[in-house]
Design brief:
Length: 531
């Protein structure tokens, strides 16, 4: 694995990073965000949706209207919506350039990025939060959780998925994010303690006192050794689980103990596809939150696929979503015959049945991407007040190679806005795309393991985006111009209002903030060790 020293470029970022850190310490802690909403992002310079592009279909009409969370209304990310990604892309760029608007393109990450930790690869990452997604500083320490895998165990970076464990990192809240590295605390769970033999992504909430709930995906592979050797491929089992334990902090750092694990949910095969129906099913990434519109209830969003045997689903007119008489609409029979019916991603919803958060019930999906995409990973609900009214943003991530036939889009974060947790969600920027790695969408899709030379070298530079209060977006580095990653990316910032977003290129250095910048905005545990 190529090593990346702390480079001079890092040092050039230091003034901006120090200013950011000072701003967090001086102001963010003085005004705790309202329990009714997250700390809002700044508005984009333009608050107009993109104009229609000649030769492309119009997007579907969405009202953003809220529905009862327990109702059976499921919003649709339609083919007409996703077609706007190409409609807003430049077909005239030279091959291999970035064809997307700068407003939705992540700035380029340098090849000489620093290694976050020499012992483990790091990818999907999230913060210690409360029920309203505030990021918690605990007794003077910032704490983040990441999927990690051993860099020195003999398997490669792309074998990390079936060797994944949840690790944690901590550093002083007043650290300089440009020069002070995260301290690695190790695996949060003892070996063999979790429900599966592999731990995949989730979320972590500080509860009363020093208790924490770690919600995670309990994945069980029966063929880890074979997979590490380049063979195998037996489908894993997957369940959503949680572990209730304790967090401790002193002058030396942060530790955890006392975890008790509970299996919460397994796919029902009706609303959410299971392994028997599809060996490549998705059921993972629990993210819990409380909705100010429904006090006393705790909800969970997660990634799923539409229930039913793979291949049996037939695309419907509402999945295509074209407006009546649109001359650029696709033919339903041709879409079904293309194989697009194999892509059936959704964002699931569940509600807690008790205050201990140990019993949950499924609710119908919030969003379906049937015949559009097969993965809506790591969903999260972000609530911000806009003009005196709470707007609900559903963010998720997806790959370019999981799009259905006839669709095209980059690896990145996709967003949808509505008036409630369950809404007729309006795709951000009319397309759903909020932030993608630089990509030439005129060329065929590829994968980060085997990119071809004709594409933009940074099409897979970052993935697994996590939207933080204030519109900061964290991700991990995958492949920067052929250099593989396994460390956290520079944090970027998106400004958004009413479903319109733009990358803030005044943030940090030309839009790139410090590597692994996940600032906290609420202090817990007294003054602790802030000084």
């Amino acid at each position: 694995m190529h090593k990346h020293p702390q480079s001079p470029r890092m040092l050039r970022w230091r003034p901006a990073a120090a200013a950011l850190a000072a701003a967090v310490v001086a102001s963010a802690f003085l005004a705790v965000p309202s329990a009714q909403a997250n700390e809002p992002s700044d508005p984009p310079a333009s608050q107009q949706m993109p104009e229609p592009t000649p030769g492309f279909p119009l997007p579907s009409e969405h009202t953003q209207e809220a529905h009862d969370p327990a109702s059976d209304f499921t919003s649709k990310w339609t083919r007409a919506d996703a077609k706007q990604i190409m409609a807003q892309s430049d077909s005239t760029v030279a091959p291999g350039e970035n064809s997307m608007s700068p407003d939705v393109t992540m700035p380029e990450i340098p090849e000489d990025f620093p290694t976050m930790n020499e012992d483990v690869w790091v990818w999907d990452t999230w913060s210690l939060t409360d029920e309203n997604a505030n990021q918690i500083s605990y007794k003077g320490w910032d704490v983040v959780f990441s999927l990690v895998a051993d860099r020195n165990a003999g398997y490669g970076f792309d074998q990390r998925h079936w060797n994944a464990r949840i690790g944690y990192f901590f550093r002083k809240t007043n650290a300089d994010p440009a020069k002070d590295k995260w301290n690695y605390g190790g695996h949060i769970f003892a070996d063999g303690a979790s429900i599966g033999n592999t731990e995949w992504s989730g979320s972590t909430r500080l509860m009363q006192g020093n208790h924490v709930n770690v919600f995670y995906t309990a994945t069980t592979f029966d063929d880890v050794a074979e997979r590490n050797a380049g063979r195998g491929g037996t489908p894993p089992d997957a369940a959503i689980a949680k572990a209730l334990g304790n967090i401790h902090a002193d002058q030396n750092g942060v530790t955890f103990d006392g975890f008790e694990h509970t299996k919460l949910l397994e796919p029902d095969g009706k609303m959410y596809q299971n392994k028997d129906q599809n060996p490549g099913f998705a059921f993972r990434d629990p993210y819990t939150f409380e909705d100010p519109a429904h006090p006393g209830k705790t909800y969970m969003v997660f990634e799923g696929n539409t229930g039913g045997t793979r291949g049996d689903y037939e695309c419907k007119e509402e999945d295509l979503g074209y407006q009546p008489g649109d001359p650029n609409a696709e033919n339903l029979d041709e879409v079904n015959s293309s194989g697009a019916n194999l892509q059936t991603a959704n964002v699931g919803l569940a509600v807690a049945d008790n205050k201990d958060l140990t019993k949950w019930s499924f609710l119908p999906p919030l969003l379906s991407a049937n015949c559009v995409n097969d993965q809506t990973e790591r969903p999260q609900i972000f609530i911000q007040n806009e003009g005196g009214k709470n707007k609900y943003y559903l963010f998720t991530i997806s790959h370019q190679f999981t799009y259905a036939a006839g669709m095209r889009g980059p690896d990145g974060v996709y967003g949808f806005v509505g008036d409630g947790v369950r809404s007729d969600y309006q795709p951000m920027n009319n397309s759903g795309l909020a932030l993608g790695s630089p990509t030439d969408l005129n060329l065929p899709s590829e994968s980060p393991e085997k990119p071809t030379a004709n594409q933009n070298g940074r099409q897979f530079q970052a993935y697994s985006h996590y939207v933080q209060p204030g519109g900061l977006v964290q991700s991990f580095i995958d492949n920067v111009n052929g250099v593989r990653g396994g460390s956290l990316s520079p944090t970027v910032k998106i400004n958004f209002r009413n479903g319109i977003s733009a990358v803030d290129r005044s943030f940090g250095q030309n839009g790139l903030g410090p590597f692994g910048y996940l600032p906290t905005n609420v202090r817990v545990g007294g003054e602790g060790h802030y000084k």
